[in-house]
Design brief:
The protein is an alpha+beta fold. The chain has one domain (47-361): DD-peptidase/beta-lactamase superfamily (Beta-lactamase). It is 36% helix and 15% strand. The chain has 12 helices and 13 strands. The chain has helices at residues 2-26, 49-55, 91-105, 115-118, 135-139, 155-158, 176-190, 194-206, 240-251, 264-270, 333-342, 349-361, and strands at residues 42-43, 65-71, 74-79, 86-87, 216-218, 234-238, 255-256, 259-260, 289-290, 295-297, 302-307, 311-316, 321-327. The strands form 3 sheets. The protein has an 8-stranded mixed β-sheet with strand order 1-3-2-13-12-11-10-9, with helices on both faces. A 3-stranded antiparallel β-sheet has the order 4-6-5. Strands 7-8 form a two-stranded antiparallel ribbon. Strand 7 (255-256) and strand 8 (259-260) form a beta hairpin. The radius of gyration is 22 Å and the shape is globular. The N and C termini lie far apart (87 Å). Pfam families: Beta-lactamase (PF00144).
Length: 363
């Protein structure tokens, strides 16, 4: 009798653990919020059918894709679930760059301070030369610090220069150390989390529809092990319509709906190239310049932010035009794991570029 009870308790315990594990697998890490401060985007003149035909997938995409195009702050094209929040991947870096601009304008951050002055170090101690890097160097990806970091991939690993091979401020390298350390410094200097600062000074003023401070997660979202570092990777979840709205603000020199959100000076510095990437030993594709966490394509006079998993924010300041696409790469341990397993890079980037060209050529 006692043996049966033990077996029953054991089976119940196993069942309970399985249920907990299943919930852990499927529950979304971030939920779609419904903020009180949200405002609706308005609609402008729709794109001609010939341009819409370029953008609209001819067959059902193999994963969730959404596209929003804004002209003069108004929607002229949208496709898919534009309200669905998604992991923006490296687009997070450009958004943090904007938050730095707001913090600088408020006198909370001095971008000329060195890591030594800020008391920023790493588990593998930084050298005297590396500690001379400034916040500005990190914003330009010119820290000269070439160490393993959380969230890095591909060329960030294979093409990483040797330590101290380039002095701070002299060499561009797309480096997750710089991006993650910027997150650490931002929190340290503003004494606010990235999420709460973004909600107060960016999301509320421009009326983001699908944001709360909980959309920003610092550290591993699903408690999976990360590379040891003092500077945790941060994750930013945004809907495509909110991402497009932020892009429209950048396109209009920091203004949204007639209100200056980020100073014109900061926007201009951010989207002005501080590096000639054509002289770099790494091929950065269509990009030939880099500002403060923004990529530059001088050929099309556009400013870009993009993220792993094929997601893009394309800004044409002269046309006050924004094209953005996001692809869903998971919002739970299970959905993210399935995407990572398949590595489905279903992208419409060529169509986005073609549509931009056609829009610009319109009379």
């Amino acid at each position: 009798m006692r043996t049966k009870k033990i077996i029953k308790r054991t089976l119940l315990s196993i069942l309970l653990l399985l249920i907990v594990f299943f919930v852990y697998l499927v529950v979304p890490r971030v939920s779609n919020p419904n903020p009180k401060y949200q405002t609706r985007l308005t609609y402008g003149k729709p794109l001609p059918q010939e341009i819409r035909n370029v953008l609209t997938p001819k067959t059902k995409p193999s994963r969730t894709r959404s596209i929003v195009i804004l002209k003069n702050e108004k929607i002229i094209y949208e496709y898919g679930h534009t309200d669905k929040i998604m992991n923006t991947a490296s687009i997070r870096k450009s958004i943090l760059g904007l938050l730095y601009g707001i913090a600088v304008d408020k006198g909370l951050i001095d971008i000329h301070k060195t890591l030594n002055e800020l008391k920023i170090d790493e588990i593998v101690p930084l050298t005297k030369q590396e500690k001379t890097a400034t916040i500005q160097d990190l914003l330009m990806f010119k820290s000269g610090i070439f160490l393993p970091s959380q969230g890095e991939h591909d060329s960030q690993i294979t093409d990483r220069p040797k330590r101290e091979s380039h002095a701070p401020g002299t060499y561009f390298f797309s480096n997750n150390f710089d991006a993650n350390a910027l997150g650490t410094i931002f929190t340290q200097e503003t004494k606010m989390s990235i999420g709460s600062f973004m909600e107060k000074y960016l999301a509320k003023p421009i009326g983001l529809q699908d944001f709360s401070e909980n959309n920003v997660i610092v550290g591993a979202p699903w408690f999976l092990p990360k590379k040891p570092s003092k500077h945790k990777q941060y994750y930013l979840f945004l809907s495509t319509r909110d991402l497009a709205r932020i892009g429209a603000m950048v396109a209009n020199e920091g203004v949204w709906n007639g209100k200056q959100i980020v100073s014109e000076t900061w926007i201009r510095k951010s989207i002005t190239s501080h590096s000639n990437l054509k002289e770099n030993h790494i091929n950065y594709g269509r990009y030939d310049g880099f500002g403060y966490q923004w990529w530059i394509d001088s050929n099309t006079e556009t400013v870009w932010s993009d993220g792993y998993g094929e997601r893009f924010l394309m800004i044409n300041p002269k046309q006050n035009l924004v094209l953005t696409e996001q692809n869903f790469t998971g919002n739970s341990l299970l959905s993210t794991g399935l995407w990572l397993k398949n590595r489905n890079m279903d992208s419409g980037i060529k169509n986005l570029i073609k549509a931009h060209e056609m829009i610009v050529q319109q009379k």
